[in-house]
Design brief:
Layout (H helix, E strand, L loop, with lengths): L1 H22 L4 H19 L8 H17 L8 H30 L1 H9 L3 H11 L5 H18 L11 H24 L5 H23 L5 H25 L4 H24 L5 H17 L2
Helix pairs in contact: 1-4, 1-10, 1-11, 2-4, 2-9, 2-10, 3-4, 4-5, 4-8, 4-9, 5-8, 5-11, 5-12, 6-8, 7-12, 11-12
Length: 301
């Protein structure tokens, strides 16, 4: 349970630091760039000593790919590294977009609603797994999707005066891109070998860092020292979240880990927002958060 608690604290600290950085009118492109750079460096530590590239990997993947996709059989240890690198290109792009939108949504919609929508994004891999992997959802998961949809409707289509939510599209972005990022990880777990998960995460942050720095240079905005500091700091919990979740899963069943992780993060961030940042939510927004917590639990059962 200690690893699970650390994972909850990591995702909470990530959200809180984004909240603080947005309050200082930060350069989001710079924060995202140094966030990805920091996460990439930490990821490299976990794969230090492991071969990072070999052209023969791609030859092996070319020979196995069609059979593996059609039959659902895992790739060999010769082909999995190439699959990890290619999939990481897509995952890295999604990861960068997700980090940027998390900052944007935190600034425009507050931390409470942002973290809640982000965590209920678990419905995305649940739905896509049914479509692409033929997984049969449980009755609880179906109920969870319905409750999540209803709560989203409550937030999206209810006009409230002086609402903290000013950019609803960003809320959906945190939900979709966060959930789709999880689905890409699931694709690797489905076809790739566990041995090269660290390589997949390293290349994910490598490609997201490259994309982030290109976007930062194109925008050519002033970079403050605080942007670099906030970016480097947030990269640490961003990378540790996945590491400690994996460790938690080795000691605690998945059906306990994932609901507690999502609900724990939502509740802790909301508590900090109420006590520290004094974010004011309407009764309907609180009701929507409550429904999303219930939906998240159901989706992970």
């Amino acid at each position: 349970m200690a690893f699970l608690l650390i994972a909850i604290l990591c995702t909470t600290s990530l959200n809180v630091i984004f909240k603080i950085s947005e309050g200082k009118n930060s350069n989001r492109y710079a924060v995202s760039s140094f966030n990805c750079l920091s996460a990439m460096v930490i990821s490299y530590i976990f794969v230090f000593g492991q071969k990072l590239f070999d052209a023969s990997w791609f030859s092996a993947l070319l020979g196995e790919f069609s059979h593996s996709i059609s039959s659902g059989v895992k790739l060999s240890t010769s082909a999995s590294p190439a699959f990890a690198i290619l999939l990481a290109i897509i995952a890295g792009t999604i990861s960068y977009i997700c980090i940027y939108i998390l900052q944007l949504s935190t600034a425009r919609n507050g931390s409470a609603m942002t973290i809640t929508f982000n965590k209920v994004g678990v419905m995305i891999p649940a739905i896509l797994s049914v479509v692409f992997f033929g997984e049969v959802p449980s009755s609880m998961q179906i109920i969870g999707v319905i409750i999540a949809m209803l709560s989203i409707v409550m937030v999206y289509f209810k006009k409230e005066e002086a609402s903290i939510i000013t950019l609803k599209l960003a809320l959906f972005g945190t939900l979709f891109f966060g959930g789709f990022s999880d689905f890409l990880s699931k694709i690797y777990e489905y076809y790739g070998t566990e041995q090269f998960q660290g390589l997949f995460i390293f290349y994910l942050y490598l490609f997201s860092a490259v994309l982030a720095f290109i976007a930062m240079m194109k925008k050519n905005r002033k970079i403050k020292r605080s942007d670099v500091i906030f970016g480097l700091i947030t990269g640490v919990p961003a990378q540790f979240i996945s590491q400690f979740l994996l460790k938690a899963l080795t000691t605690v069943p998945a059906f306990i880990v994932f609901p507690l992780f999502s609900v724990g993060a939502i509740l802790l961030v909301n508590l900090i927002n109420l006590l520290v940042f004094k974010e004011k939510l309407s009764k309907q927004q609180f009701a929507a958060i409550g429904m999303m917590i219930v939906a998240t639990v159901f989706l992970n059962i």
